[in-house]
Structures are given as structure tokens and as C-alpha cells.
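haha ok so turns out i had the wrong file open the whole time. this is the CORRECT one, sorry everyone. sequence first:
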Amino acid sequence: MTPTVALIAPGNMGAAVAKRLTEHKVTVLTSLTGRSETSAKRAREAGMQAVDDRKLAEADFLLSIVPPGEALALAERLVPVLTAANNKPIYVECNAVSPQTMNHIAKVISATGCAFVGAGIVGPPPKPGSTNTKIYASGPHAPDFARLNDYGLIVRVLEGPLTAAAALKMSYAGITKGFTALGAMMLLAATRGGVAEGLRVELERSQPALLPWLQRSVPAMYSKAYRFVGEMEEISQFIGKDFPEHAMQDAAARFYERIAEDVDGEKKEVGELDKFLKP
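then structure:
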């Protein structure tokens, strides 16, 4: 029997995941509470059905796909309807949160009687025919969630504790988003130091793979920088304050915060990055 999936929220990633499911005849429910018209449009285009929170709790699976800083608040918001539901959905926490935060959310949801899956998405919003986006899942109910492999998703079950998927996601994102932040930081430093042209020439000569990677990853980051702030903070928490390298991820969070403000403002630093990275 085809499952019903509730998915919050219809952002870029959430709507893309929903579209993969609806293309495979899955009914996907969502909430538009507090969402913009842009989100509502994405939901319609993905084939999602807007319902109230009570109806969300009638789904077989409930996927949380929101910015990391909103993950706990969403779980807490849904506690009353999940507690009251007769048929409990499996709650799948898909956000880029640390194992510590994952355990906190699991505790909140477990009190409602719902089964819980810790998950982490690796890759861009999925597109038809693409296999670049994987959802890693862990915990006792992860194999149940893997049923959605039959409906357009790529779910990979990890052995280990409930937090295994969160740990993998934090590690992967710490590398990829950390590299992007470090690269952008140093391009701006070179520009301020008056050696942008010299650095580019040297990158072209001695690091021929690195410059094209920066040309892809840095501009793609601009519109998402505001979301990366909370994610880098979660990665810092994952590393732990006992290890001084956690401060690198905190610094990346502050850098992304500054870039996000620049994107919404004068676009001075974004302009300098674009100038450096132009083909």
C-alpha cells in the first residue's frame, strides 16, 4: 500500500523531496503555517497538499526538513497533535543538526508515542533522474523509513546509534561547507591584500582542480549563507568545546552570517568574490 507522507516545510529541499514522492504517486501533506506565498507556490508545484497540523499526524511518515535552528521548535509545536493521534506517524528528523540536538528532538518526539528516525540529507535538492541526493538514516526504525526507496528517494540505512546519520551529516557538511567558507575567506583576504590576481594565477598553475571547485561552490553559497549559520554552529557543537578546532566552525558561522547580510545589503564582498571567480 502506498504510504502517505507529511513533510514540513516546502523550502527548496523540502519541495524537491516532495516532488520526487508525488511523481511516484505518494500523497504528500504539508503545513503552510507562517510560510510565504513563495513557499505556497513551491508546494503547489511539487504536488503537496496543504492541511492543518491535525491532518499531518495521520500520515505514515512525517519528515522534518527545515533550517537547523527551527528543527527543535517544529518538533515542540507538533507535540500536541502527535500525542493526540491514534495512528502515530514515524517522525523522521532530516535536518543538519548535531547528535546532541538530535537526541534532544528524539526525546521530545518519543514522549508523544511516535517512532523516531535520525536522518541527514547529503546532496542538493533532488532532480528527476539524479542520484546525487541521499538521505542517511539511523535508529531502530530506519529500515521502515527505507520503504520510501520504492517511491523515488534514496535512503541509506546506517548501522550504529540513533545519532549515526547526524554524525555523518555533520562530518560531511563540516568538510564541504567548511572548505567553501575557508576558500571564500582567503579570496577576500587576498583581495584586501592587493594580491587577488597573483593568487588566481597561482591557483590556476598549481591547483588546477581547486579553482573550478571554488567557482562552483562559492557563488552557489550566497543565497544559502543564512541557512549555513545554524548548521556551522551545530557542527561546532558536534566537534565539542574540548577540541579547539570547534572554533573553526564557529568562525565559519560568523563568516556566513556576514555574507548573508552582504547578500541582502550592499553586495560588496559578494561582488569581490564574483570578480575573483569570473571565468
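The radius of gyration is 20 Å.
again sry for the mixup
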